Automatic annotation (TrEMBL):
<keyword id="KW-0472">Membrane</keyword>
<keyword id="KW-0812">Transmembrane</keyword>
<dbReference type="InterPro" id="IPR038461">
    <property type="entry name" value="Schlafen_AlbA_2_dom_sf"/>
</dbReference>
<feature type="transmembrane region" description="Helical">
    <location>
        <begin position="12"/>
        <end position="36"/>
    </location>
</feature>
<feature type="domain" description="Schlafen AlbA-2">
    <location>
        <begin position="115"/>
        <end position="250"/>
    </location>
</feature>
<dbReference type="Pfam" id="PF04326">
    <property type="entry name" value="SLFN_AlbA_2"/>
</dbReference>
<keyword id="KW-0067">ATP-binding</keyword>
<keyword id="KW-0547">Nucleotide-binding</keyword>
<feature type="transmembrane region" description="Helical">
    <location>
        <begin position="65"/>
        <end position="85"/>
    </location>
</feature>
<protein>
    <submittedName>
        <fullName>ATP-binding protein</fullName>
    </submittedName>
</protein>
<keyword id="KW-1133">Transmembrane helix</keyword>
<dbReference type="InterPro" id="IPR007421">
    <property type="entry name" value="Schlafen_AlbA_2_dom"/>
</dbReference>
<dbReference type="GO" id="GO:0005524">
    <property type="term" value="F:ATP binding"/>
</dbReference>
Length: 264
């Protein structure tokens, strides 16, 4: 009941604010357009300031009250539209925060369960643990795994976890980023998806983080793609699909056969 009251209060505030804007801003804006049209055909039209003052003073006359009501109504409708949009945005953000927290709590369970057809571990996103430097080729590996999940039935990519389930953390990757934090890491994941797979697929992934033994771990939740997803590399397109607990590359014939059964 309290939540419903809060939602209605938000809409009332937006409607009232819109009505006020309709009277204070929208009406003068319309009068300004009228003044410009009059000036084009009648050179002796009063100045804009005088014209607006004369017309706005008429609003206090009872027989012109309908103009106030009309602009308040239009402004109120605009305010209602913004209010509904804002309410929807806030509710969506709240749900995403809840889902993010829920998925974050599940990360230890996924680690203990090991790699499966729907769970993959990667030690890092771009930091080469052997060479001790940035290896952009590892970003391609991340893209291949995400593509495999896209083309299968979705899955979870855990970054900062070794193949045997040892938690390594993300600190080495953070140090390679312009913004060395979770936000910078998430932006880089989205950039990888955009560069290799297509920016239209970014809404189909959700990135969440949790702390295990004092170390950050990232989980990329990948939804099944609505279309065949190809990885662009070296001017060529490659098709990957999740097969068991690994990601497999299909040749052209296999990819066409798979796509025909998967998306039809």
């Amino acid at each position: 009941m309290a939540l419903l009251s809060s939602r209605l209060s938000l809409l009332v505030v937006y409607v009232l604010a819109g009505a006020l804007i309709g009277i204070v801003l929208l009406h003068p804006a319309v009068l300004t357009i009228v003044w410009l049209e009059y000036r084009a055909i009648q050179p002796n039209v009063p100045s804009l300031g005088d014209f607006l003052t004369d017309r706005l003073l008429l609003l206090v006359v009872p027989r012109h009250l309908h103009m106030v009501i009309a602009f308040a109504f239009v402004g109120g409708l605009i305010g209602l539209g913004f209010g509904l949009f804002t309410r929807s945005y806030l509710e969506t953000s709240r749900r995403l925060r809840f889902l993010s927290a829920a998925h974050g709590e599940q990360i230890p369970e996924f680690i203990s369960g090991g790699e499966t057809a729907e769970v993959e571990f990667k030690s890092t996103m771009r930091w080469d643990l052997k060479e001790r430097n940035i290896n952009k080729g590892l970003e391609t590996v991340i893209a291949k795994t995400i593509a495999g999940f896209f083309n299968a039935h979705g899955g979870r990519l855990l970054i900062g976890v070794a193949d045997d389930g040892t938690v390594l953390g993300l600190e080495a990757d953070y140090a390679t980023l312009r913004h060395p934090n979770r936000d910078g890491f998430e932006r880089t994941i989205n950039d990888i998806v955009t560069r290799f797979l297509g920016g239209d697929l970014c809404p189909a992934i959700q990135t969440t983080f949790t702390v295990i033994d004092g170390k950050d771990v990232c989980m990329v939740l990948v939804q099944p793609a609505p279309r065949a997803v190809y990885l662009s590399e070296g001017g060529k397109l490659h098709f990957y699909v999740r097969s068991g607990n690994s990601t497999r590359k299909l040749d052209l014939r296999e990819a066409m056969d798979y796509a025909r059964t998967r998306w039809t």
